[in-house]
């Protein structure tokens, strides 16, 4: 896999490059900021871009704005945001920009190299990986969607796990129910959120509705322990 890294911390940038190279990937470019990002993408045609959120010169939102720009142009390269921060103003826009090939992980919560490399592979293959903390912070900020009140607690649990990027099999395992039950709950969610088949990727639209609603007390499943990002499936 051809990977571009855009990260202002030289130690982290070099560390990521070595880690990815040792895993058999080709790091085609290492950038300290986003100023040469577009030129590097054009020159090297990477499969995946790993981007920090806050980089020089302002150290505010250069990286995440670059990620939005990349996503707006198409499905190459895939984008993995790796940051210390949840940039709430833009995270939902990134999720909405398309269902394929996107991840948002928090640096301080990536505690296992194997999990990180799995997330890299999953995003590059078109999956979606969201740290539960990213989902949680968005939930606390979004306005209430009246449609969400129609969902049962179990349907909310299923939808919350979908928002973390869990596939149906993983949801079934987390909730100790059958995959058939998961499919029925998802169908009910689509119906109650008024998402018809012609609406496009209903799974992504349902997750966006979930992110637009505040967290309901007792409606969400237990999350993994801190430091364990979800990497068990993609939003379909």
TrEMBL record:
What Gene3D superfamilies does the annotation carry? 3.40.50.2300, Winged helix-like DNA-binding domain superfamily/Winged helix DNA-binding domain
Task: Provide this UniProt record's keywords sorted from A to Z.
Answer: DNA-binding, Phosphoprotein, Transcription, Transcription regulation
Instruction: Tell me which residues make up the Response regulatory domain.
Output: 2-122
- Mark the residues carrying the PTM 4-aspartylphosphate: 52
Specify where the region named Disordered lies, as residue ranges: 215-236
Record domain HTH luxR-type: where: 144-213
* Keyword Phosphoprotein included in the entry's annotation: yes
| MF terms (GO), sorted A to Z | DNA binding
Entry-linked PROSITE patterns: HTH_LUXR_1 (PS00622), HTH_LUXR_2 (PS50043), RESPONSE_REGULATORY (PS50110)
Q: Report the InterPro entries cross-referenced here.
A: CheY-like_superfamily, NreC/VraR/RcsB-like_REC, Sig_transdc_resp-reg_receiver, Tscrpt_reg_LuxR_C, WalR-like, WH-like_DNA-bd_sf
Q: PANTHER family attached here? A: TRANSCRIPTIONAL REGULATORY PROTEIN NARL-RELATED (PTHR43214:SF24), TWO-COMPONENT RESPONSE REGULATOR (PTHR43214)
Q: What is this protein called?
A: DNA-binding response regulator
């Amino acid at each position: 896999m051809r990977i571009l890294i855009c990260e202002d911390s030289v130690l982290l940038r070099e560390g990521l490059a070595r880690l990815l190279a040792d895993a058999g990937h080709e790091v085609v470019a290492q950038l300290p900021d986003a100023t040469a990002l577009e030129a590097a993408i054009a020159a090297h045609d990477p499969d995946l871009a790993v981007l920090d959120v806050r980089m020089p010169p302002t150290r505010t939102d250069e990286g995440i704005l670059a990620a939005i720009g990349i996503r707006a142009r198409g499905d190459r390269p895939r984008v993995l945001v790796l940051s210390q921060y949840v940039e709430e103003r833009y995270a939902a826009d990134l999720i909405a920009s398309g269902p394929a090939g996107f991840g948002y992980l928090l640096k301080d919560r990536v505690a296992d190299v194997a999990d990180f490399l799995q997330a890299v592979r999953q995003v590059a293959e078109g999956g979606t990986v969201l740290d539960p903390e990213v989902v949680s912070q968005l939930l606390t900020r979004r306005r209430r969607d009246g449609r969400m009140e129609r969902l049962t607690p179990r349907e909310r649990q299923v939808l919350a796990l979908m928002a973390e990027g869990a596939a149906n099999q993983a949801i079934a395992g987390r909730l100790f129910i059958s995959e058939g039950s998961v499919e029925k709950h998802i169908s009910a969610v689509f119906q109650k959120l008024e998402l018809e088949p012609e609406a496009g990727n209903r799974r992504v639209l349902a997750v966006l509705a979930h992110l637009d609603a505040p967290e309901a007390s007792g409606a969400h499943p237990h999350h993994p322990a801190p430091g364990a990002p979800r990497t068990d499936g993609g939003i379909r």
